[in-house]
Amino acid sequence: MKKVMVKAWEIAKKGQNKFGGNVKEYFAEALKLAWALIRKVRITTSAGSRNHKSWVAQITGTHPAFKLNRSFVNSVDHNWTERYFDLVDGIYEVCDAGSRQFIQIVKGNVEEVEYSEVLEMVV
Q1: Per-residue model confidence as pLDDT tens digits over 25-75
Q2: Which of 33, 68, 69, 98 could form a disulfide with 52 if both were Cys (CB 3.0 to 4.6 A apart)?
Q3: Residues 34 and 46 occupy one common structural domain
């Protein structure tokens, strides 16, 4: 909890420095941002290959042709063998060198979910 409050005050002070006014005016929104930053979950996939890509996409709703609408997530770091993704609460499809699975992140906890459950959640 202390880490969240410290981060929130840092964000609020940056807002004050950039836009002016009282630091307290920025604190409510800064607290939301700090919680989101603290709750990030780092997912690691293999680097993939030319034929078997590795990627992560957030499920954002339904799509008329493909059933699920996806928003691809950029990796935050990578090396020769691994790619790293920082994710917040939501539903994601993770493709690790061709092997696909769905995960749900709730308050920083990761659970694997089935495709049928994902379809029910986004409808």
Answers
A1: 888 898 888 877 777 888 899 998 889 999 999 999 999 998 999 999 999
A2: 98
A3: no
DSSP-derived letter for residue 80 is S
Residues 93 and 69 in one domain: yes
- What's the chain's average pLDDT? 89
pLDDT of residue 1: 60
Phi, psi of 56 (to 5 degrees): -135, 135
Its pTM stands at: 0.71
Domain that holds residue 91: 41-122
Tokens of 89: 């609460």
| HSE-CB for 59 with a 13 A CA cutoff | 26
Q: How far is CA 120 from the centre of its chain?
A: 21
> Are 28 and 62 within one domain?
no
The answer to whether the Cα torsion of 94, 100, 102, 105 is positive or negative is negative
